[in-house]
TrEMBL record, chain B:
Residues 253-323 form the WCX domain. This is Helix-turn-helix transcriptional regulator. InterPro entries: CBASS_pafABC_assoc_protein, WCX_dom, WYL_dom. PANTHER family: PROTEIN PAFB, PTHR34580. The lineage of its organism: Bacteria, Bacillati, Actinomycetota, Actinomycetes, Kitasatosporales. Pfam families: WCX, WYL. Signal peptide: none annotated. PROSITE patterns: WYL. It comes from Streptomyces massasporeus. Residues 155-219 form the WYL domain.
Amino acid sequence: MAGKPVRPVNAIDQTRRMLSLVTYLKERPGARVEDVARAFGISEDELVSDLDVLPMCGTSFRGGDLLDIDTDGERIWWHNPAALAAEAAEPLRLAADEATALLVAARAVSTLPGLRESDRQALLRATAKVETAAGEAAGASSRLSVTFESEGGVFADVDRAIAERRRLWIRYYSPARDELTEREIDPIRLVSVGHTYVEAWCRRSEARRTFRLDRVAEIKILDEPSAPPEIELRDLSEALVQPAAEDPEVVVEVGPGGRWVAEYYPHDSADELPDGGLRITLRTPDPASLRRLALRLGRDGRIVSPPELADSARQAAREALTAYDGIEAARTTRVVEADAREQHAAHAVPDGPGDGPE
Amino acid sequence: MAIAKAERLMNLALCLLGTRRPLSKRELRDSIEAYVEAFGPGNGATGSDDSFNRMFERDKDDLRELGLVIETVENLDGEVGYLARRDSNRLPPITLDAEEAAALGLAAKVWQQARLAGAASGALQKLRAAGLPEDVDPYGSHGALEPRIPVHEAAFEPLMLACRDRRPVAFDYRKATAAHPEQRHVEPWALECWRGHWYLAGWDRDRGAERVFRLSRITGKVRSRGGRYTAPVPDVVTVRETVASWAGEVADRSARIRLRAGAGYPLRAKATSVRELGDGWDELEIPYGHGLDAWLVEFGPDVVVLEPAELRADVVDRLRAVAKG
């Protein structure tokens, strides 16, 4: 797995881990450092730093023995396992946060379309057992929930192509251009961050591309083997697409009703304007793709630069209006209520990750 | 150098777990090296009782945070003592097979928020200590699936804790269309992540009604408020349906549009009917929900709204604003 897990170093996490560690080690004399680190999902260095602390610990009340645990870097030896009474070494019940973190994640993953049915069944069984074992601690887990979005059929095909190492043919929708293009891709991995994406090597552009599954209009698994070049997998946790410094700059000024732009478009800066709006500077390899944004904004904002982009939006609007000649003017007063109403349709807003300038 | 906090917490935990009778604060203070070093007789710091008490209380809270049930009992001499009873701290028996273990292993990796990532690993480690099978690399054979739950909002953690502990909060919230944030007083019920964004559902005390907030619009700190909830918490909180309706996903009407042949694939994908007109245009019937006007305008001259008149007027209105720009 390439994703870099978040690994906070803090005393609570370390204590929690060491408490489980003593239970685990008590039953496994001579356990290998490598195996224990893997079982605990930590690096060998982290494990060794735990092993440095443990010899200072014990049920030290009135001269109880300290834990005589040491390691030669290869194996772990505990010379006085009796120093820890049986009751202090039993597996501990789950805390509310632990039960919540595990159960919410398990429920979310179990709804992923494309998860192999046998894996889903295993996860559902495991979830039920953990709920039971957690008892009351499981209660608060209903206060947090996560839904992954993805297209079931497309997901299953991509997943299968990756498993069988086969090339895919897709018809892919690019919102920037409002067009469908056909391409052959060698899929590398599926990533779910809100939406689900496939990271792949695009044979047409000979480059790494990220495709959002709900924009795949058609998909076929080809007979050719998939042969992506060896590329380093990036940590996609922050943003799927990072604009490059050399990309052209676009400046957009929005009123209060257009502030959502700053939430949806990765940008270099967003400065407050006196009217409650924002002046947003962003970079995109293809400024023409932002014509959609200019049109959507309407009276809530305008493109300041480049001027050609502003012109093309104006031009498009004028052309569109010719179809409505003779239509009476719209009601001029519109009540914009909405406590937290979205000023956009979520399905229509490009959220950054596209597939590059094509 | 002061003794590391993890060492101090570990010793306190082992003492409380290992004892059969309640241990007094004094006993703990005299026997745990970290306390002795900081507050022992040789140390002589004035007011050290207060600072010891504060540290001791914090340490107990920290241990409770990681799941330890610590009881406070009075012993025969009327002195307060502490212990972590075996019965209340033992994980009930749980047997998971290799497949189930692998599935949980995958799930435990999805959090990208430090506290929850730590808690999920902690849960897995406790299960591991209880015999959860190992050495099965989840999906190792095909390693394709990498679900991640993004959490970028600073308000997430305090709100998660407030939901957990049922604690009222106050925060500054900037509505989508408002220039300035406004303070809101909320009894938080639940957090939900949909399409990569987090939302909070709760009782808005100022509005006297249920409200859903988007976390990215909370500005500044989330502050805790004392007291209890004044409104009942519903059994089922449906954030998703509320948000979906803002996003135009809930459509109760339909609209008729003309769309240039070959253009607007997403509109076609949502259409309930498509009819070729033969003049380079198609006629589509599409669901009409909140936000459709803004979406249609994005397609510029490739879309013409036929009906209803209201939608047509909204679209013309928007186009005029851009044309004037």
